[in-house]
Amino acid sequence: MTQGVRGTRDFYPDDMRLRNWLFDNFINASLLHGFEEYDAPILEREELYTRKQGEEITQQLYNFQDKGDRKVALRPEMTPSLARMVMARAGGLPMPIKWFSIPQCWRYERTQRGRGREHYQWNVDIWGTTEISADAELISVIVTFFEGVGLTSEDIVIRISSRKVLEEVLGSLDIEGDAFAQTCIIVDKMDKLSSEVIGEQLSKLGHTSEVITTIQSVLGIKDMRGLKKSLKAESLAVSELNSLFDEIDSYGISEWVEFDASIVRGLAYYTGSVFEAHDRKGKFRAICGGGRYDKLISTLGGKDLPATGFGFGDMVIMELLAEKDLVPRLVSGIDDIVISLNPDLRNVAVRVAASLRDSDRTVDLVLEDKKMKWAFKHAERIGAKRLVLIAPNEWSRKKIKVKDLETGEESEISLDDI
Ligand code: 4JM
C-alpha cells in the first residue's frame, strides 16, 4: 500500500521545497522576459498526438480508454495542448503570444527499465511571429534561468542549428516532406544508437548509401564557416542562422552558444531553428531543447501560425546541479515558533501566535505540551528565526520571552508589543 503508480514520484516537503525553488527560477526567467503563464488539462484526446512519424514521444504515449470508451492520453508534451488553445481563439488573441507553463508530462514505455514515467517540463513559447528575434529571446530566457541557479557558460553550452540545413541538402536530392521529417527523427538518435543501426534505419527509409554519407558529412559540421562552404551561396539556413547568432551576440550571451549541425531534435514538427542545452562535460542527456515549428497547426487541421518554443525538464537539471554542488540547502521559512511551557498558558500562546500572524510573520504554534529542549531542537531542525516562549515566571509579569536564534539574544516583551 505504500507504493505509488510505477514510474511516479512523491514529493515530500524536503523535495517540494527544492521543486518550488526550481519552478521559481523557471517562473522568474519567464516573467523577466514578459511571458505570461497558462495551463491546460493533463488529460487530452489521444488524436491530438496521432502523428505519422515514428517519434519516441508518440510511441510512448500513456493512453487508455475512459469509461465512455473515449480514447484519451496523459499529455506527453505541452505543445499540442498549446496549439489547441491558440487554434480555439485564432483571431481573438493579440499577437505575438508569449506564454509559459510548467506542466507534468507523461510517458509509458513498453521496454521496462525502472525509468520515470512523469516529469515536469517548463515550456516557453512565442506564437505569431516569424522573426528570428523570437528564437534569440528564447535563448536569452534559458541563459537567464541558468544564471539564476548559479550555472555559467563554462558549465553549459547551447548548441544551435536549423532544420533548414538538412532540408536544403536533402531537398536538392528530392527528399522532402514526410521522408525529411522521418530522416530527422532517425538522425536525432545518433548519439544513442550505433552508426550501423542509424545507417540501417536510414536505408530502410529508402536512402542510398551516397545519401547517407551526405547526411553524415553535413551533420558533422561544427562551425558557421564550414556550413557556409557546404551550402548554396543564397542558403536561407545560413542567413537565418547568421541573424540568430548576431541577435544572440547583441544580448551579450555569445559564450553560451555554438553552431552544431548534428542538432535536429526528435519531434516531427520542427521547421527552422533547433537547439539543445548540454553540460559541457557531456555527462548528461540534453538539459532542454526546442526550436521553430511554423507548420504545426495545419497538421491539426487549422490555419498555420508561426511559432517557436522550448521544453525544459525538471530531472536532468537537478542531476547537473547536484554534480556542481549548486543544490540549495533550503529551510522551512518559519519566522517564529510559539510554545507555552505550561498547559494553562496554551490559550496565551494561541493569542500570541494569532497576533504574530496578523503582523505577517509565519508562525509554527506548538500544539502539544512540549519541553524547552524539544522546542530548541525543533527550531534548529526547521530553521526558525525566533523562539517565542510563554513561561509561567515571565507571564506572571505579563511578559513573553523571545529568543533570537540567529544572534542568541534574549529579550522580554509584553503582549501589546509583540
Ligand atoms: C517523461 C514524460 C514524457 C516525456 C518524456 C519523459 N515525453 S518522464 C521522464
Automatic annotation (TrEMBL):
One of its GO terms (biological process) is histidyl-tRNA aminoacylation. It comes from Marine Group III euryarchaeote. Its EC number is 6.1.1.21. L-histidine binds at residues 77-79, 107, 121, 125, 265, 269-270. SUPFAM superfamilies: Class II aaRS ABD-related, Class II aaRS and biotin synthetases. PROSITE patterns: AA_TRNA_LIGASE_II. Its main location: cytoplasm. Belongs to the class-II aminoacyl-tRNA synthetase family. Pfam families: HGTP_anticodon, tRNA-synt_His. Keywords: Aminoacyl-tRNA synthetase, ATP-binding, Cytoplasm, Ligase, Nucleotide-binding, Protein biosynthesis. It is an enzyme of class 6 (ligase). The gene is hisS. Residues 1-328 form the Aminoacyl-transfer RNA synthetases class-II family profile domain. GO terms for molecular function: ATP binding; histidine-tRNA ligase activity. It is found in: Cytoplasm. This is Histidine--tRNA ligase.
